[in-house]
Each structure stands twice: as structure tokens, then as C-alpha cells.
Amino acid sequence: MAIMRIGKAEIRVMDLEESVKYYTNVIGLEEVGRSEGRVYLKAWDEFDHHSLILQEADSPGLDHIAFKVEHEDDLAKYEKKIEQFGCTLKRISKGTRLAEGEAISFELPTGHQVELYHEIVRVGTKTGNLNPAPWPDGMRGIAPHRLDHLALTGEDINTVTRFFTEALDMFISEKIMTVDGEEMVGSFIFARNGKAHDVAFIKGPDKKMHHVAFYVDNWYEVLKAADILSKNNVQFDVTPTRHGITRGQTTYFFDPSGNRNEAFASGYITYPDFPTITWTEDKIGQGIFYHRRELTESFIKALT
Amino acid sequence: MAIMRIGKAEIRVMDLEESVKYYTNVIGLEEVGRSEGRVYLKAWDEFDHHSLILQEADSPGLDHIAFKVEHEDDLAKYEKKIEQFGCTLKRISKGTRLAEGEAISFELPTGHQVELYHEIVRVGTKTGNLNPAPWPDGMRGIAPHRLDHLALTGEDINTVTRFFTEALDMFISEKIMTVDGEEMVGSFIFARNGKAHDVAFIKGPDKKMHHVAFYVDNWYEVLKAADILSKNNVQFDVTPTRHGITRGQTTYFFDPSGNRNEAFASGYITYPDFPTITWTEDKIGQGIFYHRRELTESFIKALT
Amino acid sequence: MAIMRIGKAEIRVMDLEESVKYYTNVIGLEEVGRSEGRVYLKAWDEFDHHSLILQEADSPGLDHIAFKVEHEDDLAKYEKKIEQFGCTLKRISKGTRLAEGEAISFELPTGHQVELYHEIVRVGTKTGNLNPAPWPDGMRGIAPHRLDHLALTGEDINTVTRFFTEALDMFISEKIMTVDGEEMVGSFIFARNGKAHDVAFIKGPDKKMHHVAFYVDNWYEVLKAADILSKNNVQFDVTPTRHGITRGQTTYFFDPSGNRNEAFASGYITYPDFPTITWTEDKIGQGIFYHRRELTESFIKALT
Amino acid sequence: MAIMRIGKAEIRVMDLEESVKYYTNVIGLEEVGRSEGRVYLKAWDEFDHHSLILQEADSPGLDHIAFKVEHEDDLAKYEKKIEQFGCTLKRISKGTRLAEGEAISFELPTGHQVELYHEIVRVGTKTGNLNPAPWPDGMRGIAPHRLDHLALTGEDINTVTRFFTEALDMFISEKIMTVDGEEMVGSFIFARNGKAHDVAFIKGPDKKMHHVAFYVDNWYEVLKAADILSKNNVQFDVTPTRHGITRGQTTYFFDPSGNRNEAFASGYITYPDFPTITWTEDKIGQGIFYHRRELTESFIKALT
């Protein structure tokens, strides 16, 4: 049928054990497996086997993101559309990574590696699916519900956005335009899942990652997240505030390798007929940080 | 493509002006039009022309619910599937109601009238789509974001649920089963929009409505809603609590005609591959009211 | 100078170990000592040695409440005032209970035992007083900040209230009056500490306890408390709601012996010149439960 | 008996009408009177006639703060203590300002003007004191409950703090000490009212004001406040965060004249026996801004 959501991301970290400690104790993900130097993690409220893979490397950054499709035969359907758009792709065979089935892999116009997949081992959420409690006992750290979205940078936002809407049938919730209306410098892209975004692109160097976001429930959970980060001496980029774009509530900070993380809450609901919101670049400060109303240098420059 | 959401409901009220006052001042919807004895209302965060229609009548209850499809030609596609399921349907021509285009109309196995539509005048949300504020000035009453879902009753939950999954390609987030596992006595149904439910069915008499729910942001908004209801002497059915089913936060109350309303917040995200949660009937108390852990007579018996 | 706060309460429980488990794991108090069949407990944010004492007995209920005075010589001052009011009292010598100094003990006009004390071992809060974190790691259960207040019943609310204002220099935040204005049927009494109440009296049988309340921070903490109670199968009396009286947010439930507990949040600030609020008995439903607007039988009748 | 609270502050503003608009529409205070070029304001939840006075002047800053004492004869008592401490003072006669009775006026060691008073016209809160609603209809702007505290700067924090504890019988909740423990560079002072502070002093130039704080209920109200400030293009100093000191939640911003305002929520309860918390100057970043963990230049330098 269609893409359901961003289901996984693999990121590069520089000290694997330190990173695992951070993502399990501070973020509060659960380690679900290790294989060939990679550590597989999931959030308590996710039912698939993993949503985040850590890969030890010499530099931080993104290895790839992956979207889960509704049916196995969606892979063939999107294979065709992606090739028609002009991207080359390849099949990745089942078992290449832990618990994963067959996938297709391709490169975005911005140089980022992306995969589509359907098959993955289902392990269920921590609360189960028989008369479940609303939340599990024994949560650790920030304990987000899920991997929510990633934000990436690229030179040509217009083309990558067109790729997502034309080749992947995804939708734009918001876009940032230069004041003259001639260039798109940011876009926020969602699948048919009600989310404000599964992935976002911001004008900048190709192949770079701006942040990985985890979903927490509400503004109080953002405060709890920020308290936990401070207790653990995690470096903040942006303390709790509201986004203009998505209306969500947020705090940004860095993992031990310098990859920016976000704890993101709330935001509106989207549908395919959601009227795309436009921010003009002169208001981008308020668009990104609704209160401060101006960007900070670190928020613009720190990319991995 | 597919159904996007429950888009509208038309309900019967007994004193039209008193009801309009209630739905605009207490609930905080906006009156967007009147025509042929009907009053059309929308929530501030909805972009379509209306989501609730009040129809003056001798008794309260549901006139019909309507689902919005992604494309105009989805009407023909679902027309076929609905007929295949064995329901008779008819086309409703454009202009039958204010601001609405062509629709198809049919009766559920439970006797409720349902419509599918694509075309409706788009008026935009109150915050607009150019550099919008997160919320508009001048909100009144509870000020929900949207019509969220309806809950209806019927004799044969299994068949009506099968209708939604087979004929309408919708999904089941949760179901309530008798302890012996033989009969489904409740089901919670969603479209591809991340919601916990667009419509729910509970074992009971055919053609009846249990409640109309409006979405508010969070547990504090549920408190604010309850405070406003008490200030306005609105009759409560259930004061603020958490649902086991959907994990959402809630309060139930009655409109001036006796139609039950809900202010509903939070809940998890769903996708087509969401693992359906099962509640066994012996735990239904906790499933419905996570704290009280038992149903009340009024909650079971008051239907319109 | 004056009374600072309700500092301690000793209650009777029927199965000591089961009660200790409940008060430490579900409520989340810390056991700080045992002596002569009594278990001493404190909340994480209290700096004195203990605030709750459990005493094993054949029936539940209150042994005594105790108010902490600002200076040691306040004991002599209040001794005189209490005697002038007509109550007999006695001195309790240091070391009678664990970690406690000298105290005075007397009986209220309602038959309840009360003590005043100044000396008690100070152990400090869990976050310490050097560059403290806002909350400690490793909290368990509801994890309230403190013992907040007790509500007791008595035949003559007017006299016991007069005792608190005249003999103990305390203040009335709210009172409930019969509609004819002739009899006081409820009073809410505070010391110079900004609290909405340290102790409350409701018309009913002498010597009985209505509830022991613990303070949690806000409406979200009341939800978390209620979720934890349900997970632990604790019997609720009243699920989360707002009080009219004190404006606070609340949920009521029963300890394993049937003593009613409350998780109470928010409320206004008081001062000696706070204008006493009057509730007329016809509005007492809304006064107690702002949303439901009527009392329940269990709330009235279950006393220990 | 004793000081009850900071009851009023008079500040200098440069454009009176613009300031009145800001304090009534954005902050949401109520104008209660005008006289001799001064505008008198109160918050909806305060029962005395006014808590903030605006005085038109050529430069912003503090005219005076005033503490309300419990009894009229406390004025004479403190007059003696203040003189013993070495401050000269004078009586201000009834009617010098609108709705105010007799007061005593003196200068702090830091050069700030302070008054003590008991008499002031009581007008009651907006919800009244007969069967009141928890909050009034028709609130505007941030709508704080009360003037909460002021923070002032001075060269000699030790002496001014000693003045408050010795001459005014007030208490220290927290202090900031140089790392060698030799100098106090910050102190947070409260009366017997449970507040985290009525007034604070930070090392800096004499006679200057750092901020005027208004109390809002909780972390969600801080978000609402920040949203309203952004909608009104008010200049922020610090976007929403938590304080280490007081544990409270906060946002700082500037009135049209450049006087810093704060919306402050939560914080712990204090009593006369509260164990003073010490922050060492090397941790002051975390003490002031628990998340960012470093001071900003504007927060240090912008004084009026």
C-alpha cells in the first residue's frame, strides 16, 4: 500500500560502549541484540525488533534511515518509482542485519542512504497486548515512546522533497521558503500516520545529519528529559521550548559522539490533505524556536 | 487511496438554539453556517468547512457519520467493496448539504448511517498556514482541536468490525473479547492516520450512539475541560480519568439533549501493522476506566 | 514563635508488614527506623527523621497527630494556652519514641490525641542541601514530597476550630456552613506556612479519621499516582478530580487496613490575613468534588 | 506577629500607557486605580487592593518594595529592630498612596527603599470567597496568581541578608557562596509563608533591580506564558527552564521599559526550620539555569 513510518536509523558513534550506556541509561532505550559490531536498540513502546542501530566508526553521523512499508510487495512498487525518479538502487537480502528481512537501498538526491523494508521480527511493546497497563514498570532515563524522526541537511531541498512526494508518496506538513518565494530551504515530510514529520530536510551540506528525535508524551516529559540530561551532564544544544514548526515541544542535546538528539512532544495531527504550512525565511527563528525567535550558531553549524 | 479519517458527524438535538449555545460556548466550536434547519460547526484546528452538524429533532442520537477519503475516485472504489460486502448504498449529490460535494451513503450492519466523501469546502484552521502561531487568540470553552471519534453500539460487533476492515480497509487497535474468547464485544477502529480510533463499537442495541469525542491536547486540558463543564453546570457522566483502552485521558458528559460527549486526550500512535490489543471482558472495567476498574450503570445504559 | 506545620501522624494498621510494603513501595515513603512494634517512615523531600508512624493494632485509625513548633519554648507557651482553653495535657519525655525529643500531649474537643513538639532528629532530604538536584534518583511509587494534612471527624466542629485558632494560633482557610448559617460543619485549618490546610475537620463521629494526605507536585503527578495505584490493585475511593475547597487536585484510596489516603496537589497559598472562604452546605458536593458535584456514600461513611 | 509576605512593589516605567497595556494585556493584571501619575495593579488571585504600582519616570528600575506585617503593632516592633540594626527610618502616613494605611520606610544596606505596612484596602480575589470557582472567567494574558518575589542586586550580600534575618525575622532558603566559602554572593529570603523566596539578593551594584516575578501554577502555565510573550513580541531573556535554586520553573523577559519580569512556578515549601541550601559559585550556572548550566551575559548585566 504505502510507507507507514520511519522505522529505523543507523548512526555512527565513536565509542560504542559509552554510546550504549548513554542510549540505554540516559535515553532509556533497550538493547535488543548485538551482531558484527553493531548494537540494536528499541524504545519500550515500539513493537518491532529495533529502531536504532549504533555502529562504531571514526566519525559520528548517519549511516542510513529506513522506512517501513505496509506490504512486502510495496518494495517492488517503490523500486519502480524510485528508479523512475532516477535513483539507482539495490536489494539487500534478508539477514544482512539482525532480525531484518529483505530491503531496498538507494541514495537520496542529498546523498543520504535510505532503505525501505517490510519484514522485521516483531517483539511487541513492553506493556504487551493483553489487558495492558498504560506504561511499563521499571522505565529508565528519558524513556521515549519511539524513534520519531530525523532531520538531515542537503544542498537541494526542492529536489529531495519532490523525491519524497513523487517517488515515495509522502506528504509535506511544512516548508520554509526564502522571502522571495523562490527557493525551498526546509521541508517536513510525513507518511500516512498522523505525525508532524517522519523526516525533515534543511538547507546545508549534503549527506549530513542534523538530529535524531525521540518522542515523549508531553511538556512535562520534556522537563523530565531535560532534568535527566542535566543530572547526567549531557551537553544541551537547546533547552526546553516550543517549535513554531509542528507546534511541538522540544529539547536538543548531544550524544557522546556529538550526534544531536531531540526529545520531541506533541505537535498536531496530519493527513494527506493537510494544508502545507509555509514559513518565510525571515520568520525562521520563530519557526524553529517559537520563544527565542532566533537561531543559534550551534543549532545551525553542528552537523554530523 | 484510502479513508483518511472520520471527518464529520451529524447528530440530533432537541432544542437547536440551546444546543448551538452549548457547542459554541462550552465545547467551543465555531458556527460556520446554517441551512435548512441544520447548524454547521467546526473546531478551531480543523481545516475543512465543518465536522459537526446539529439537526433539530424530537429525540437525540446520531443521524450519520462520514469518513473523508483521500481522492475523489476512492468513492467508486469503496462503492464496489461496500456492495461486495452486501450493503446497499446510494449516491448523495453535491450540494445536498452546505459546502459538501458528492458522497456515498450506506447502512452499517448495526443500522447506523455512514457516508464517504472527498469534496468539502476548505476554510483553513484558525491559525492559518503562513508563519502560524501554535494556538489562536480568543479561544472559547473547551476549545478542542477536532472531532476525534464516535462510539456506537450494535448487536453484532464481529460483523460490523469485519465490515470496516474488509470493505473500508480500516484497522483494529483494540478489541474486547468474552472471557471464553468466542465473541467480540467491543472494537476500536482507525484509518491510516495514527489515531487510536476513528470509530468504536460496543455491544448493545443497534443504531444507538454512545458518545461523540473531541480531542484536547493533554491531561491538563482534560482538567480545564472538566472545570469549564462544572462552571457551566453540565452533567458529567465520568469525571477525569485514564482509559486502559487507548491509554488516553478522558472525561464524559452530556449535551443538553442527552447525547454523551467526551473530551479525549493523548493515547498512543497507530499504524497498519499495530498489534491489536485484546481486553478480556473480565477486565473491561479497567479497560474502560483504568482507575475505577468498574463500569458504571449510566455509562452502560445512557445511549441516544 | 508559633506552630510551623503538621509534622507527624501515627496511624494504626492491622498487618504491619503488609502496610510497610504498601507505604514504601506504593506510596513510596522510606523506612527510617523500627522500635517497639512501630515503623517510622518519611517522604524523600522531608528533612526531619519521620512524618508517619505505623503502629500494629486490631483496628485501623489514628493514634495521634503532632504539630512542630518553631522554638523549644513554644511548648511552654502553648501548654498555657491549651490549659486555658480547658484541655488537660501532659508532657511526653524525650526518647519516648525514636528520634523524638520532649513533647506535650493533649486531647482535642473531638477526642483526637494531639502532640506539639520541637525536637526531632534532622536527617535531611534525599537531594541534600549542597548544590542539590531538583529530585532524587531512584524514587519509588507515588513518591510524594511530604505528609500534607489529615482530615478528622467530630461532633462539634465549631469548638474544635475555635481551639485551633484560639489555643494554637492557627487559621481557617475555608469553612462549610449549614445553609441557615448557624452551624459550622467543616473547617480547614493552617499554620503560618502557606498551605491550604494542615488539618481539616468534618462533621461526624468523634475520634475518627477521614484521611491522611500526601503532597504531590501537580495534576500529572496525580495521574501517575492513580496509575500506580491501579497497577497495584489498590482500592480507590475517588479517582482524580479537583477540589472546590482548596482548588487542589486529588485522588483518594485506601491503605491495606482501610485507612483512607489522598494524593493531593496544588491549591492556593495562604497567609494569616487570608480571607476565609465559606461553602454553604448545599454546595458541599461541588466544594469537595468540583466536577462530580455530589458526595459519594463511601466518602462520607468510610472512617477509621 | 511577623512579616507575612512581600505585598507590593513600585517600579519605574518610561511610557506609562504602554506599560499599563503590557501589564494588563500581556501579564494580565487588573488596573485598580490611578492617582498622582501612578497606576495601581493587582493579580486576580490577590485580595489586597494592589500589588504593583507603576510610576512614570525617566529611567526604569525599582522605587520600593513593601512587606505586609500580620498586625498593625508589628510596625512598632520592627521599627525598633530596624533602628537597632542601624537603619534610619520614617513613618509614611495613611493616604500617601491610594488605598494604603500607615507604613514605615527605610533604606536597606544595599540602598533599596523598603516599606512595612499592615493596612491596605481589601478588595477580594476575582473568584470571591463564597462557594468560589477554582479560577475566574475572562482571564487575560499570562494571568499570574500573584506578585511572587523580587530579585535585587547589592555590593554586600552578607549584610543585607543579615538585616533580613536579624531585623525582619525572615529566613534564608538558599545562599550562593564563593568556592572558598568566604563570601556570600547570593541569598534567597522568605517570610513564614511557605514560599521559596519573597526577595532575593545577588552580588552586583547597589540599588539595582534584577527582576520582578509573578507566580503561575505549573510548567504548562510557563509554556502558555512564553507562547503569549512570543505572540506579543515581548523580548525574552531566558526561555522556559528549571531553576536549580528553588527547583521552580521559569521564563524571563523584559517589560517595555527594560525591567526584567519572570513567570515563576512551583518550587518547594519552606518553614522556619528549612535547612538552608548552599550553592557554590562554581555551580551557579546549574543553580540558576538547571539545564543550560551556565549564565548568560544578558542575565548578569541587564539591571534596572
UniProtKB/TrEMBL annotation, chains A, B, C, D:
* Limits of the VOC domain: 5-119, 146-266
Query: Does Metal-binding appear among the keywords?
Result: yes
Q: Does the keyword Metal-binding apply?
A: yes
Keywords, sorted A to Z: Aromatic hydrocarbons catabolism, Dioxygenase, Metal-binding, Oxidoreductase, Plasmid, Repeat
PROSITE patterns the record matches: VOC (PS51819)
Question: Which superkingdom heads the taxonomic lineage of this protein's source?
Answer: Bacteria
- Drop me one GO molecular function for this one: ferrous iron binding
Matching entries from NCBIfam families are given as:
catechol_2_3
Tell me the subunit arrangement. Homotetramer.
Q: Which family does it belong to?
A: Belongs to the extradiol ring-cleavage dioxygenase family.
PANTHER family to which the protein is assigned, alphabetical: FOSFOMYCIN RESISTANCE PROTEIN FOSX, LYASE, PUTATIVE-RELATED-RELATED
- Kindly provide the name given to this protein in its UniProt entry: Catechol 2,3-dioxygenase
- Organism of derivation: Parageobacillus thermoglucosidasius (Geobacillus thermoglucosidasius)
